[in-house]
């Protein structure tokens, strides 16, 4: 009978032998410990690649009592903002030597969130980041005690440990830009108001109009999708109505631009449009979209730095300030009653 031997996985000792260093030095490199020269690190990494060595996470957990794993409680990952934040978290976690365990939420009820957190805790995560933009989810999480560090993305005033972008100030920047162009009748196309982001952008728009002593323009309702922006664009009063529209995200602005064009409204000659997020395609809309850029990747990095106690990098410290990007969809207001 033929004896078939299963190939042995390379060990730490094999890596040390090939690199010409001690077992302890390889362990320091694998666990990203200090006191190893860069030249030695390169030798060890080259040996790891050559042998296709894979550290045994279970053994490391038993030896150190640490999993180097962070739990992600996520909802609405189909949307640009939450998915972009998750990518930033993933990149930052990998550089810091951590792995992610992601649990997605099918709804935001107390039982569902409790079950998801239990799953993460059972995987031995050392901390939890909740990317849950719904008001109901954040209200539940505000009452949760996990026994490990936890922070929420976008939660604002619900609990200690929130990481949030300054949505209100960004919305005010949008209004300030339009007012500087001479617009006085500024409408708002809001996102779904069970999202914290949509609420804050609406509040920022209202507050800025009040600061400029302008009456509130009409508020239209969308659901973040381009289709809902298109439907709002079909419903907007373009005869004597607003001369500018602040849209709560870029996808809805895309649909709005299409509807306005079909109705014979020229953007920005007749109506100015400003979005929010600066999605990669915003520069290529027709016309190219003036918008507020959110640095989601830096926001994700800030989450990791906050959770594991690192000193924030300077670029991450600026993540809370969305920046106005002026393109072709905004222009000075025309001095007549009917914009189209």
CATH superfamily of the largest domain: Response regulator
Order of H and E elements:
HHHHEHEHEHEEHEHEHEHEEHHE
Helical percentage: 40-55%
What is the CATH first-level class name of the largest domain?
Answer: Alpha Beta
- Give the averaged pLDDT, no decimals: 86
β-strand amount: 5-15%
Oligomerization status of the protein chains: single chain
What would you say the CATH architecture of the largest domain is? Answer: 3-Layer(aba) Sandwich
Q: pLDDT under 50 segments (min length 5)?
A: 1-6, 313-318
**N-end to C-end Cα span:** 87 Å
Task: List the total number of helices.
Answer: 13
* Strand element count: 11
By CATH, the topology of the largest domain is Rossmann fold
Cα gyration radius (Å): 25 Å
How many domains?
Answer: 3
* Biggest β-sheet description: 5 strands, parallel
Biggest sheet, spatial arrangement of strands: 2-1-3-4-5
Envelope shape: elongated
* Secondary-structure class: alpha/beta
GO molecular function: DNA-binding transcription factor activity; transcription cis-regulatory region binding
Pfam families: LacI, Peripla_BP_3
Protein name: LacI family DNA-binding transcriptional regulator
Organism: Arthrobacter cheniae
